Amino acid sequence: MEYILCVVLFCVGFYAVMAKKNLIKIVIGVAVMGYAINLFLLLAGFRMNSEAPIITGDMYGFRPVDPLAQAMVLAAVVTGLAVTLLLTALSIKLYEKYGTFDINEIKKLKG
Amino acid sequence: MLPLFIVIPIIASLAIAATGKTFKRLSETLSLASALSLCLLSLQALKTVITRDVIIYNVGGWAQPLGITMFCDGLSVFFLVLVNCLALLLLMYSVSYMESSRYKARYYFFFLMLVAGLNGVILSGDLFNAFVFMELSLIASYVLASFGLDSENFEASFKYAVMGSVSSILILFAIALIYSKTSSLSYAAIAESQLRYGAPGFFTLLIVLITVGFGVKVTLVPFHAWVPDAYSSAPSPVSALYSGAVSKVLGIYMVLRLFFNVIGTTPAILNLTASLGVLSIIVGVTLALYQWDFKRLLSYHSISQIGYIMLGIGLGTPLGLLGALFHLLNHTVFKSLLFLNAGSVERATGKRNLHDLGGLAKKLPVTGSTSMVASLSISGVPPFNGFWSKFLIILACINAHSYWFALFAALGSILTLASFLKIQRYVFHGYLRDAFAGIKESPLFMTIPMIILALLCIFMGILLLPGLDSNFLGLALNVLQHGREHFSLIAGLPK
Amino acid sequence: MNSKTAKIIARTFFSFSLLFGFYLMAHGHISHGAGFAGGVLITLAFLQVVIVLGKDAVSGIINRHNAKLVAVLGTGALLLIAALGYFYGNSFLSNYISTGTPFTIFSGGTAALFNIALCTGTAGCLVLIYLSIFKKG
Question: Is residue A42 part of a domain?
Answer without folding.
Answer: yes
